[in-house]
């Protein structure tokens, strides 16, 4: 099929595009506005559809079970300020089903994806977007000015269960989890590399990040050949998968405050 392919399919405005630069590597470039906010449309009509297309193309040339392959997810290549700035929160909080029907649908899709997935973090990565980056298998990040931060405590936005689960799985100890969540610490690339969250630091801005991501993707692509990669990941991260399968409405700060006043 002809690449690049833009999403949403048929839309006059492209929010993301899929490239296929080598026989075993696909790139998903996010270019939704200035900062790739995770909105309803961006998740449902763009990211999920792009993942479906990559898997369909990969499976069209596989054996019965698999073939070499790897996916790189990168922020807008023409800038190096944001990978993603998280949710379109004002809109998301108006929809009680947003997390179960949209955000967690993306979580489930990534965790079950049949090939290695590399987050090529070429700029800031905040809140729910940091959660998405943590769902990926590897993270390559610019060594320059960029932060990763779970700033929900500052926003008054409680974590979905899947977000809490991935933090508990990825981060090394309770002190770091506390810093990441309750303190909303802004992690530098160097801090994240030191605790093993970022696998590779890349000099040279977006070009350098993409170059290092390609090296890693080439090294890991053969792991998809046996068809077991996505199955292993979903078993290893079962606690996250189970959390993403929970269909519950989150209690917001205003709800909790009202309940507390009624009880006291």
UniProtKB/TrEMBL annotation:
<dbReference type="GO" id="GO:0005777">
    <property type="term" value="C:peroxisome"/>
</dbReference>
<dbReference type="GO" id="GO:0004165">
    <property type="term" value="F:delta(3)-delta(2)-enoyl-CoA isomerase activity"/>
</dbReference>
<dbReference type="InterPro" id="IPR018376">
    <property type="entry name" value="Enoyl-CoA_hyd/isom_CS"/>
</dbReference>
<dbReference type="Pfam" id="PF00378">
    <property type="entry name" value="ECH_1"/>
</dbReference>
<dbReference type="InterPro" id="IPR001753">
    <property type="entry name" value="Enoyl-CoA_hydra/iso"/>
</dbReference>
<protein>
    <recommendedName>
        <fullName>ClpP/crotonase</fullName>
    </recommendedName>
</protein>
<comment type="similarity">
    <text>Belongs to the enoyl-CoA hydratase/isomerase family.</text>
</comment>
<dbReference type="InterPro" id="IPR029045">
    <property type="entry name" value="ClpP/crotonase-like_dom_sf"/>
</dbReference>
<dbReference type="GO" id="GO:0006635">
    <property type="term" value="P:fatty acid beta-oxidation"/>
</dbReference>
């Amino acid at each position: 099929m002809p690449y690049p392919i833009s999403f949403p399919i048929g839309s006059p405005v492209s929010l993301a595009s899929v490239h296929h630069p080598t026989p075993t590597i696909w790139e998903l470039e996010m270019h939704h506005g200035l900062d790739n906010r995770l909105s309803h449309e961006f998740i449902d009509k763009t990211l999920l559809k792009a993942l479906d297309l990559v898997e369909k193309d990969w499976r069209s040339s596989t054996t019965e079970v698999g073939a070499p392959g790897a996916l790189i997810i990168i922020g807008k290549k023409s800038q190096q300020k944001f990978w993603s700035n998280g949710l379109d929160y004002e809109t998301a909080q108006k929809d009680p089903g947003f997390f179960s029907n949209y955000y967690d649908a993306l979580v489930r899709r990534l965790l079950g994806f049949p090939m290695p997935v590399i987050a090529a973090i070429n700029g800031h990565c905040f809140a729910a977007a940091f959660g998405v980056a943590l769902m990926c298998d590897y993270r390559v990040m610019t060594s320059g000015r960029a932060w990763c931060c779970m700033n929900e405590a500052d926003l008054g936005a409680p974590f979905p269960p899947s977000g809490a689960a991935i933090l508990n799985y990825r981060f090394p100890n309770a002190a770091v989890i506390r810093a990441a969540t309750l303190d909303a610490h802004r992690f530098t690339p160097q801090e994240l590399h030191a605790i093993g969250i970022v696998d590779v630091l890349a000099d040279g801005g977006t070009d350098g990040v993409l170059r290092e991501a390609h090296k890693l993707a080439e090294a890991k692509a053969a792991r998809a050949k046996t068809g077991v990669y996505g199955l292993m990941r979903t078993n290893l991260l079962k606690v996250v998968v189970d959390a993403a399968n929970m269909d519950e409405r989150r209690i917001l700060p205003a709800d909790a405050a009202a309940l507390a006043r009624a009880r006291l």
